[in-house]
Specification:
The complex is a heterodimer of chains A (372) and B (595).
Chain A lengths: L10 E12 L5 E2 L6 E2 L4 E7 L3 E5 H5 L6 H4 L7 E2 L4 E4 L10 E3 L4 E6 L5 E5 L3 E6 L4 E7 L3 E12 L2 E3 L3 E7 L21 E3 L3 E2 L1 H10 L3 E7 L1 H8 L16 E8 L6 H9 L4 E5 L12 E4 L21 E4 L8 E6 L5 E2 L5 E2 L1 E6 L4 E5 L3 E3 L3
Parallel strand pairs in A: 15-16, 16-18, 17-18, 18-19
Antiparallel strand pairs in A: 1-13, 2-4, 3-12, 4-11, 5-10, 6-9, 7-8, 9-10, 12-13, 13-21, 14-19, 15-20, 20-21, 22-23, 22-28, 23-26, 24-25, 26-27
Chain B lengths: L5 E7 L3 E10 L2 E11 L9 H16 L4 E2 L2 E2 L11 E6 L5 E7 L2 H14 L2 E8 L6 H11 L3 E4 L9 H13 L12 E4 L6 H8 L4 E4 L13 H18 L3 H7 L5 E2 H16 L3 E6 L4 E7 L2 E7 L8 H8 L1 H5 L8 H13 L8 H25 L12 H4 L17 E5 L1 H4 L4 H12 L3 E8 L4 H8 L3 H12 E9 L9 E9 L2 E8 L3 E4 L6 E8 L13 E6 L4 E5 L11 H15 L5
Parallel strand pairs in B: 1-6, 6-12, 7-8, 7-9, 9-10, 10-11, 13-16, 16-17, 18-24
Antiparallel strand pairs in B: 1-2, 2-3, 4-5, 13-14, 14-15, 17-18, 19-20, 19-22, 21-24, 22-23
Helix pairs in contact in B: 3-4, 4-5, 8-16, 8-17, 9-12, 12-15, 16-17
Classes of the chains: A mainly beta (372), B alpha/beta (595).
Chain lengths: 372, 595
Amino acid sequence: MAHAYTPGLRVTPQTLLQRQRQLPLKGEVVVSQGDSVTRDQVVAHTHLPGNVTTLNLVNILSCTPEELPNYMLKREGDPVEADEPIAETRPFIKWFKTTVKAPISGTLENISKITGQVIFRAPPRPVQVQAYIDGNVIEILPEEGVIVETTGAFVQGIFGIGGEIWGPLHVISKEPDQILTPDQISDSCAGKIVVGGNLLTLDAIDKARESGAVGIIGGGIRDSDLRDLLGYDLGVAITGTENIGLTVIVTEGFGSIAMARKTFDILSENNGKEASISGATQIRAGVLRPEIIIPESSIHEQTEESDHPGLIEGALLRVIRAPYFGQVGKVTVLPSELQTVESETHVRVIEVEFDNGDRAIVPRANVELIEE
Amino acid sequence: MDNLDVIIATDCGSTTTKAILIEKKDDIYRQTYRGEAPTTVEAPYEDVTRGVLNAIQEVEELSGRQILDGETIITPAEDHRGVDIYISTSSAGGGLQMMVGGVIQAMTGESAQRCALGAGAIVMDILASNDGRHPHEKIERIRQLRPDMVLLSGGTDGGTISHVVELAEFISAADPKPRFGSGYQLPVIFAGNKDAAQEIERTLGDKTALTVTENIRPTLEAENLGPARHVIHDLFLEHVMAQAPGYRKLISWTGAPIMPTPGAVGLMMQTVSKQQNINVVGVDIGGATTDVFSVFDDIFNRTVSANLGMSYSVSNVLAEAGLDDVMRWVPFNIDEADLRDRIKNKMIRPTTIPQMLEELQVEQAIAREALRLAFVQHRALAVGLKGVQAERTLSDVFDQSAGGESLIKMRDLDLLVGSGGVLSHAPRRMQTAAMLIDAFQPEGITRLAVDSIFMMPHLGVLSSVNEIAATQVFERDCLIYLGTCIAPIAQGKQGTSCAQYEIGLPDGTQSGTLNIGDFLHFPLEADQEAHLTLQPERNTDAGAGPGRELNTTVKGGTAGLILDGRGRPIVFAENQSERADQISQWSETLNLYPR
């Protein structure tokens, strides 16, 4: 393999970004190419087929499935109202008549002569897709959606929960290693995205939720807190649909870990600016990471979008596994031959010099580059 | 195809495409070179052939043989140029995801599940008339899932029509869309009551791409999974693969149909079982899923535990097994909160490796539990047919089982094969043997092996074109024999005798008493054999029956012979510190870890 190390997450003060906004089924796109759109603007909508309700009439009418059409008052495709008669028997004595009423309003979709089952479909449900970010429509996907483009700051987190949301950034911690405490969060956080430096404790997240914050961002979260927050143990990292009242994004990992300086600086310099965030995380094929997009970034330097040089001497990195988990340092030596580490695993390694001057040998697979 | 001298085979996995070169030298097929490259199904490449070419290029560089002419594979082989055939398997893009349906969950539903799993699919849900869900819940579920394919069975031939048609009506009402490609119809296979075929055609013919094939359960007493599995493979190529980026080109390059990776591994297991006339269990533990394969008395079964794995799904192993069951395998204590954070960090950064010994031990403890749980799931599905009317004798009247007994009889297991990173790349082979023994707990005499570089998919698809080549490479290059586990099954107090043993090792005979709770190790190289005599106590069965002497020849391997008297299930000390001592002692016996 060409690269044994983990490429870092993207953290950039100014970049060109595109987001595809697509309907789950074909529908109507309501904006045009070149339109300027805002984050909460509807760009496409459609109708999802309504829910289905079934009713087996042969037991109710005491007939065979083949005889069923003779008793039907409605035909396939007919609209029906709830409690409207749809089938009835015609006995000699009217007193013995059995009438079946429609269980829902909608359409009678199918009458089966094999099973005696009648299927009703509720009216279609409307679905809308919003722009999510402030920007311009650069492409229309006919009947399906649009691609919105914007320039701004972009930060990928490592893990998140909750879906897409937007609001002004409200940076509370003064330094990236500060832990956000509940007493720092007040009602002034309502409608905002609260930003801390280090660990997000359950108490702080709860306080943010109570105060009406729409999102919270920090360096790390404890798994035990995550379990209490969700009410279950998260087994597989597929998130984004949780409904916990706010979106949570951690930028570094699980446990107490300071936010990377560059990430913290970008968020701090954009304090008060509107941001669009998503907690959706999926770590299997087609990796999806949580993200923070700040379209009107205060930082106007344009970063060159180029392939980063990779793991070279002097490159800034963070160790992502014990025993040096979370420590930041620089590559000092890149031995090409395999080495045996304490666990006797035979791996490619690097030598790292940490901020305090200590040096250590670390497997290349256990480091993550930090883009400067 | 007999005139194959040079073969290039690839397996396009979710993350890595692995290529191997197989050459016939002195009339024997050997695997000679391998290369790998990242799979390129996702953006920005969105063309699987790019990764295939890169992997083959690595083989070219290592072997010095020119295989590619630009982007064309040179065929046939001439001297040091080209290959005779190119073959491939694929599990990229999440593999083959199916939904199955049957009238009775435990009968046709289970047969449909076995059929789909055996073909290499992940079964997303089993729809059945008696699954306890309301019709609208079933319809909503079908709509949500977006499978690649649906297998509908139900009704023995001449049996119920209405129930299976009802299931078809649910599918029709849901109007499900396939996972890939909005422009084509969802493939549905009907393999149920032949008398219902016409009604099924009427119900689903317009809305889906329907294929009708032979009933998978023509009578309650018989399962007929072959024809439906062939249809699954055909549709996998025509519909699912053809929708994935670059696969149309890849299909045009291959000399044999592309197989789903697990389907190919299953085929290889069956070939080995048939050729050597042995019962085999195989396991492949990956980052997200664990596949278990078994062939007992010619009956093949495969299960996939979709959320048991060592990276993406590692947290789920902890959630399902519980912390206590994971930590019982390590001789030290660790703060629960800290362990939970470490495991979650592995989940979100799946490519990291354990640098510290303690971390390796925890990872291997998790692997034991993931393997154990996956095997529990396998045993639950690998059962005889349920609903079969059997003549019952007086003694059967007192037996409460309603058919469906497990086909997995550990005492009859001859070979246990492991593969997947945590087993194949363990720093010491002894660790692999220990993980397999602890997780599967084989009984009697069982040979252990590990797939050295996960070559079984390639060999499985090769076996469909040249069985001899596949088995020769499997025997010589694919498997690394770890040794043999000898585990008499005893009931009794710890420390009491369960058997007398005598082992004729190349450097002298070793004899003694195996007590309950003992765990003994005797080195014996891979190419060596030893004569074993076990005289069990009256209440102990060493494989020949309770109290009966067993005389046999056992084969060695990198881990040698392991005499396991720890009981089935393995008996742990109840006291925490005694258990830690017990684990340390087992580790020392096998020299599992550096001291």
